[in-house]
Design goal:
Carbamate kinase, VC0802-like, 2 domains, about 30% helix, globular, binds adenosine-5'-diphosphate, binds aspartic acid, binds magnesium ion
Amino acid sequence: MARLVLKFGGTSVADIDRIERAADKVAKEYNAGHELAVVVSAMSGVTNQLVAYCSSVSTMYDAREYDTVVSSGEQITAGLMAIALQKRGIPARSWMGWQIPIICDDIHGKSRIIEIPTEEIETRFKGDEVLVLAGFQGITSKNRIATLGRGGSDTSAVALAAALKAERCDIYTDVNGIYTTDPRIVPDARRIKQISYEEMLELASLGAKVLQNRSVEMAMKNNVSLQVLSSFEDSIGSELPGTLVTKEENIMEKPVVSGIAFSQNEAKISIIDIPDSPGIAAKIFEPISKANIIIDMIVQDISEDGKVTSITFVVPQDDAAKAGKVLGDLDILKDADIRIKDDVAKISVVGIGMRTHAGVAEKMFKTLAEKNINIDVIAASEIKISVLISQEYTELAVRALHKAYHLEEPEA
Ligand code: ADP
Ligand code: ASP
Ligand code: MG
């Protein structure tokens, strides 16, 4: 007997028929004698609709009320999943975030989970109950519902798996594992058998939405065994493995390049020709970070006479207007030329083998040059290289790079 957390994403609970199929999988694991917590997303499309409702009432909506609205999709699927399980003779009970409670901070819209008390769940497990949790939501210390950022049900599932010390967290989705890149863009992308937390964290942070990046971060910190698998295949997680996300030392193969991620949800902000004085970068980035805006790539140039400088950086597109406002309100930038460009894309090549292999960046730049794609900004770390390019070349760049690194070839 094992303790498992099973998470079903939006397409896996998109309608009653799919909820029934997901319930069949849960039943199979239950009948095999496992202790189960099931985490569900909203039916696919529902959260987008709820977000659109908020924007249609007001573009300046209060983030706490946004959370009240957008968290509601998961309530429906949690209840339906519990009914579907009860119909199969399984003692299941639905739980909202506030009922467990999933305690999280009050950064509404992108809240982080702080703690999950488990005594009540343990008691229920002893009574043979299956817990069905509405993903994506928690409760703040101010007693308000908060949501965990788009794709946040993955994080609900991993956090629960960590709190319950589950043997595995199975993420059921509409692809049968993690691929070398999004298989919707590159049809001959290859399924990866095992990937390290570090690589998956980079891929997820850089745009591979198959897992929310915070879920990978949490899995890495708590050593949760994470598996991504298809809800459309007949097998269950205990039978047919999907892709396992695990510790680097468990992985035999350490490919130089494991995958390619891309994101079109980016905006480039340039502050042109501001006086170059010590502390200018701190003065600019401090208020940006206080506004909870995450910056990824940064470039600073100096003019020929060394008196002025230009700073360019990249923020999530959804935060671009807010970042522009924060900068516009700064005294030191009151006469500055601030430009925001959002028809950009970030393309990233990720692999732990890069630590010990040279030439990966060179190949990336050469491949893009051969396709006549101009690179705007570059950022690199030990295990990734990212470039910012014009959005219209996203697919061309991803396909060319996938080929250049021979990622379609089967793993040795
Ligand atoms: P869910 O609704 O189950 O949470 P998501 O839509 O959030 O599912 O994530 C699954 C999708 O992630 C896939 O349909 C696929 O298009 C996309 N994706 C992006 N990058 C990758 C990748 N490297 N491997 C697999 N899927 C990827
Ligand atoms: N329903 C939420 C979303 O669409 C959370 C999730 O699906 O993980 O972002
Ligand atoms: Mg998702």
